[in-house]
Task: inverse folding
């Protein structure tokens, strides 16, 4: 690929994100609606925890022993914020492709010389705005309502963890996109995977409570590392150096998933070209 | 536009596209069962050569394989067999370079973002076509002006008429400043004024030195626009020539269209009348429409044929209700080649 083509593709990435952002702006109520869920969902779990344990010190000690922190609210808010972001990323590329297919614009995109990666991931870039919006709401709620102290240095380390998790999550999203292009439908699969993540990745509980085989499953799933490491840096004040083994696994899983996604997407595109399914909806 | 070289704008040799009917379940795939799906050929060995700078039309009825051919040329479909080169580039192995140098309009008005303005749509696609950032603004202004939409650039596409949307799709295809344009049924669904408008734009493209390959099932459109026409039916090219050359293949000076009704009651006129008419001219086509028989006759002289037709009708107890004498059209060419009208 020439430098001009690469530069063109990078600019197209930006244009795809801008296009999605412009489309989102035409529906401002979505942004308001999104204010509600990042607070309501974890809050329900915070109240549930209080309902089960009350002010019992024994219960808190047991939680701290398994979770490595006494910040129950922070633990739950971070878990669910990560879950919501993961959901967005899983749905993102597939939904974007499917929307283009239903809208009738997918063929027009495939007739341009731009890299398929732009078509696949470009629209998802706009979701960064949503992610920042959601994590900001969560951080504000944790600080203002529950008194969780979030240092700037910890927040920067959290950003680094999120950045390292991006290939793994977007790789998964791209795999789902390949499924969408092949079968035109992906919700059953995404729901299944989200269920798997909810049970094994410790969104609302420490994975230490899982049986041994469950913990083994958890350690094979990228969100486990993302959620665990976010909690470590934000709630336990851990440094990035002590998380290097985790982050290395996360990055390796990411590279593997991205490679698989590119192969799957190419095969699916070829299938679509043979069967003419780009325009089917 | 880049400098033209020696290769023709489009060269397709033995282009074939097969599709499967029905579906094969995941279980059948897992069991590696024999694929028993019926295969059908949408395009069955098409040969085309379009020279640079010409407007070339592919004319045929719906389902003739026009759009499938266009999609293979546009790199959206992979040919089952045969090969195609655009501007000397192979559509399969050099697909990305092909896309860089051509603009395509498919017959699907949904391919725009209705919640974006015309300019925003073009900004997005300009980036996808790798239009350099420095010249993007001018390029967009230019293509908007060329399709007469400059004054509506900042309106949402959802407020556009169908004709305006189709012009915007043409503007989008012009963004890469292409040497070659593929237009698939560009005027389908447009009102007469919008169609005329779009045809004017296509003429301007030729004046700018671009090559246009278009498909249509409107014979007048093909006749007015194209330098050469390939008539396709059932996935094959059945004739290829200039419009005048194609019309010369019909052995008639004039075409007479008759509407004949029985004198009593709505009963259709019988075959005896057609046999009588056949003695005076060549019956190219006949069909029943409600209580009349519509007959198209290729005639060397309408002046001789029409009185003979009235005599024939009278002899069979029928009345000619309508007579129309018209010059030979591409519709007549299609009828003489296939025995069917284009709209059938």
Result:
């Amino acid at each position: 690929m020439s430098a001009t083509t690469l530069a063109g593709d990078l600019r197209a990435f930006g244009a795809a994100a801008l296009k999605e952002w412009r489309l989102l702006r035409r529906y401002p109520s979505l942004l308001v609606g999104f204010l509600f869920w990042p607070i309501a969902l974890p809050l329900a779990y915070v109240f549930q925890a209080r309902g089960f344990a009350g002010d019992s010190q024994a219960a808190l000690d047991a939680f701290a022993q398994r979770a490595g922190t006494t910040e129950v609210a922070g633990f739950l808010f971070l878990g669910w914020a990560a879950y919501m972001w993961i959901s967005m990323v899983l749905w993102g590329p597939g939904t974007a492709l499917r929307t283009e297919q239903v809208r009738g614009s997918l063929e027009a995109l495939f007739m341009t010389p731009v890299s398929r990666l732009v078509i696949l991931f470009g629209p998802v870039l706009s979701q960064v705005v949503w992610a920042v919006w959601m994590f900001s709401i969560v951080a504000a709620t944790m600080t203002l309502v529950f008194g969780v102290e979030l240092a700037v240095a910890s927040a920067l380390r959290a950003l680094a963890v999120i950045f390292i998790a991006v290939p793994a999550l977007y790789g998964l999203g791209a795999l789902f996109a390949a499924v969408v292009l092949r079968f035109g439908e992906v919700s059953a699969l995404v729901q299944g995977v989200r269920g798997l993540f909810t049970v094994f990745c410790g969104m609302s509980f420490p994975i230490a409570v899982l049986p041994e085989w469950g913990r083994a499953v958890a350690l094979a799933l990228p969100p486990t590392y993302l959620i665990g490491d976010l909690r470590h840096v934000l709630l336990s004040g851990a440094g990035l150096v002590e998380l290097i083994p985790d982050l290395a696994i996360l990055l390796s899983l990411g590279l593997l998933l991205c490679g698989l996604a590119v192969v799957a997407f190419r095969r699916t595109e070829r299938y679509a070209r043979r069967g003419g399914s780009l325009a089917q909806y | 536009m880049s400098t033209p070289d020696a290769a023709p704008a489009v060269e397709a040799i033995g282009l074939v596209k097969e599709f499967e009917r029905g579906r094969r379940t995941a279980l059948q795939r897992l069991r590696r069962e024999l694929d028993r799906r019926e295969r059908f050929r949408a395009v069955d060995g098409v040969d085309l050569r379009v020279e640079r700078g010409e407007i070339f039309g592919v004319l045929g009825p719906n389902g003739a394989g026009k759009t499938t051919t266009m999609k293979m040329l546009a790199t959206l479909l992979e040919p089952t067999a045969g090969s195609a080169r655009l501007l000397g580039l192979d559509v399969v192995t050099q697909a990305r370079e092909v896309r860089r140098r051509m603009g395509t309009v498919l017959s699907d008005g949904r391919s725009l973002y209705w919640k974006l303005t015309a300019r925003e749509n073009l900004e997005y696609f300009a980036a996808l076509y790798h239009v350099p950032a420095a010249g993007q603004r001018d390029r967009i202004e230019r293509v908007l002006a060329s399709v007469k939409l400059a004054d509506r650039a900042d309106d949402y596409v959802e407020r556009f008429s169908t004709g305006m949307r189709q012009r915007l799709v043409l503007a989008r295809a012009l963004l890469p400043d292409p040497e070659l344009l593929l237009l698939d049924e560009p005027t389908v669904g447009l009102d007469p004024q919008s169609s005329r408008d779009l045809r004017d734009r296509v003429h301007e493209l030729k004046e700018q030195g671009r090559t246009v390959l278009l498909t249509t099932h409107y014979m007048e459109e093909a006749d007015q626009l194209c330098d050469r026409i390939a008539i396709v039916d059932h996935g094959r090219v059945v004739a290829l020539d200039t419009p005048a050359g194609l019309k010369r293949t019909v052995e008639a000076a004039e075409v007479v269209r008759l509407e004949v009704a029985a004198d009593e009651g709505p009963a259709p006129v019988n075959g005896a009348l057609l046999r009588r008419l056949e003695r005076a001219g060549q019956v190219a086509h006949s069909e029943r429409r409600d209580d009349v028989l519509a007959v198209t006759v290729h005639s060397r002289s309408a002046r001789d044929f029409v009185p003979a037709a009235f005599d024939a009708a009278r002899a069979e107890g029928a009345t000619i209700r309508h007579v129309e004498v018209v010059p030979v059209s591409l519709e007549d060419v299609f009828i003489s080649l296939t025995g069917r009208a284009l709209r059938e």
Observations:
- The radius of gyration of chain A is 20 Å.
- Chain A touches chain B at residues 4-5, 8-9, 11-12, 14-16, 18-19, 22-23, 26, 103-105, 107-114, 118, 270, 273-276, 278-279 (CB under 8 Å).
- Chain A has a mean pLDDT of 86.
- Residues 217 and 274 of chain A are 38 Å apart (CA to CA).
